[in-house]
Amino acid sequence: MNTLIFRTAAPFLSALMMLFSIFVLLRGHNAPGGGFIGGLIAASAIAIFGIASGVSAVRRAIFFHPMSIAGAGLLLSSLSGFISIFAHVPFMTAHWIYPVIFGVEVPISTVTTFDIGVYLVVFGSISSIFLALEEKDHV
């Protein structure tokens, strides 16, 4: 299924899916969504782009090895939980900070950083599996 229409539409569709995955990630605590489903949508976008353009184009597009992305997400999720231990409260208790960035107060929570970590773990692991399967398919 490597038609001209698919190869032309795949980069636009992938970009739109990546944008939607970030939307789903960020709205996950107020409505259905979150890091897991956002990561799956992002990995699906990479899969569509990989089917249309090839594995080498995907590897150039994401810069880092997908398992490195998953490892960074696991580290971020773990650190989000350990912050509560250092504050002498139960593990995974939410904490908020309110830094002022360019004159705007931005609330950041450990819940959000945990969800971003889950997003990166799911995206990295599913993308790594897809790329491994796609490489084996063309050898």
Describe it.
The chain has helices at residues 4-26, 35-53, 55-62, 66-86, 110-137, and strands at residues 96-97, 100-101, 104-105, 108-109. The protein is built from five helices and four strands, in the order H-H-H-H-E-E-E-E-H. The strands form two sheets. Strands 1-4 form a two-stranded antiparallel sheet. Helix 1 runs antiparallel to helix 2 and helix 4 runs antiparallel to helix 5. The mean pLDDT is 90. 71% of the residues lie in helices and 6% in strands. The protein is elongated, with a radius of gyration of 17 Å. With 139 residues, the protein is mainly alpha-helical. A hairpin with a 2-residue loop joins strand 2 and strand 3.
Average pLDDT, all residues: 90
| % residues in beta strands | 5-15%
Q: SSE order in H/E notation?
A: HHHHEEEEH
The residue fraction in helices comes out at over 70%
Q: What characterizes the major β-sheet? A: 2 strands, antiparallel
Shape: elongated
Question: What class, by secondary structure content?
Answer: mainly alpha
How is the largest sheet built, in terms of strand order? 1-4
| Radius of gyration based on Cα positions | 17 Å
What's the arrangement of secondary structure elements?
Blueprint lengths: L3 H23 L8 H19 L1 H8 L3 H21 L9 E2 L2 E2 L2 E2 L2 E2 H28 L2
Antiparallel strand pairs: 1-4, 2-3
